[in-house]
Amino acid sequence: MFESNQTDHSEGTAADLKDYLAQLHAERALASLEGLGENATYLADLDEAIAAAHHAYVGAALTEIASLRAELFGPQEG
Question: Would you say residue 40 lies in a domain?
Fold first, then answer.
């Protein structure tokens, strides 16, 4: 399984965070296949990590979009 709780993935590029989120979803699917679907504590921790990674990914993507827009067209005023 992926070591989702071993590293802080709250920062990084949107692409890095998207990859990490995909790894967490793969881990969730594998957990069900490997019989861990009944382990409520493990799944709750994994679901919490997925939610946190999703929020971090969305935040990073929006920040990157806004930064690119500011670089291309200047900061918005008004």
Answer: yes
Residue 42 lies in a domain: yes
Long-range contacts of 13-18 (CB under 8 A, 24+ apart): 13/60, 13/64, 14/57, 14/60, 14/61, 14/64, 17/53, 17/56, 17/57, 17/60, 18/57
Tens digit of pLDDT for each residue in 31-78? 999 999 999 999 999 999 999 999 999 999 999 999 999 999 987 776
- Domain range enclosing 54: 14-67
pTM for the model: 0.80
